[in-house]
Each structure stands twice: as structure tokens, then as C-alpha cells.
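call fold(seq) -> C-alpha cells
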Amino acid sequence: MRKFKDKVAVITGAGSGIGQALSIELAKKGAILVLSDKNEDTLSATRQKVQTVGAACHTYTVDVSDEKAIAQFTKTVLKEHGHIDLLFNNAGFALGKISLKDVKMEDFHKIVDVNLWGVINHTKEFIDTLLSRPEAVIVNISSLFGIVGVADQVPYCTTKFAVRGFTEALRMEMMGTNVEVYCVHPGGINTNIYRNAVHYERNSTLDEKFQKALERTSPEEAAKTILKHIERKSERILIGIDAEMGDRLARTMPVGYTKVVKRIYDYTTKN
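ret:
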């Protein structure tokens, strides 16, 4: 997609982080914004920032883990706007450091509902209208943890690898149609996802290390990178040097990379 002006863009998780940054960048490019988030206060803050730019903006409070709520959201959006041109499945949820042995299954189910089913349900609900447009875009946010697996992040890695697989298979299905499908793999991005995660135990030193790792790339930089790749039709998007290094490692050492990552992980968490 070369131009975003007057395109109707749906962005989930628009209340903060990459979702908010995408909203502002698309507003600057003249898009019509349809924004959703579970948190009404943060969503309102995004709306105010977008309206400062002068873009048309419509907000909806939606829990992306609720299939019925997504279906109703879709009906409302299509009734009020007639169609959409871009879908950004950005909303996400994380758990802190926790082993598979110790994780509560209710938390495992929740992260799957938000990170995976939220993506699947939004895409399924909007696919017909996207196929009806002259050109359309689906952008699904995976992660560096959708490229390499990491210990004590089994639930999160499960969802992000699944988003990657879903996106790559869907891209193949959409070949020959008007719909472009993009998979985004952010590395450390300075967002609220770690601060808002469910933490089973807190360690101030470890928290500081994780937060520092997340400060490598700003949400604004991430948003600009994503839109630049869409304009260039580059359908696999790595954001940050850590994502690029992880991708190279997984490609060159598809089995052996786990030992390398484990050593790095052990050193980081124990020192």
C-alpha cells in the first residue's frame, strides 16, 4: 500500500505503546482511524493526541479476549464506516518470568485469548470487507519471541510463534488477492507491556534489566518502521538490532540457538 490518506485503519491496543504511535503516524498521513483498547482512559488519551493532528478518529472500548465483543465491534465498525482498509492486530498481554511448571493455567488461557485468539477473531471478522477493497492490509504483531524461544516465557512464546505461523499461512492464502499480510517482530520496545504484565514475583534488579532492554527502540520508531515496510511491501518486519540478531541466530543455528540463548538468559537473570 503506497498511500494511507483516507484509508480506514483499525488498530487494536491503541491506548499505548506501538498502537498509540501507529495511530499518531497514520493520522499524520491522513488515515481515518478506528481505535480500540480495553482501557478507556488510555484510549481517550490517544484520541486526544490524534485529534491534535486533525485526523478523523473513532474509539471503541473492546476486550480482545472476548470473541462476542469482537463480533459486535466488527458489526458496529462496518455499520458506521462501511468498510476498512487496514487492520493492525496490535493488542498484547504478557506474563513475567515464570516456568511452565509454576504458571497458573488461567493465566496461560488469558495470554492465548488475548495474543492469539484476538488476532484470529479480528482477522476472521474483517476478512470479507478487506477482500472487497481495491487494496487492503493486515498487520499482525508477533515478537522477537516468535523467532526464538526463551526459558520462563513459554506462554508468551507459544502465542507469538502461533501468530507468526497464522500470519505466514494467511499470507500464502492471500497471494493473488488485493490483501497484503505483514508479520512484525519487535525486539525491545519501550512500552508498558512488561510493566502491565502479571508478575508472580518481583525482583527490582531483574525488573531494571528488563526495562533497560525494552528501551532500545521507542514506539514511535517502531511505528515509522512498520509503515515504511508497508509502503515498500516488505511483508516480514524486524524491529531493533535484537530482533535482527535473533533472526540471524535462528536461521543459522535452528537447533543450536537454544543453548546460546539459554547462556545469555542465565547470565542476565543471575548477575
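The chain has a mean pLDDT of 91.
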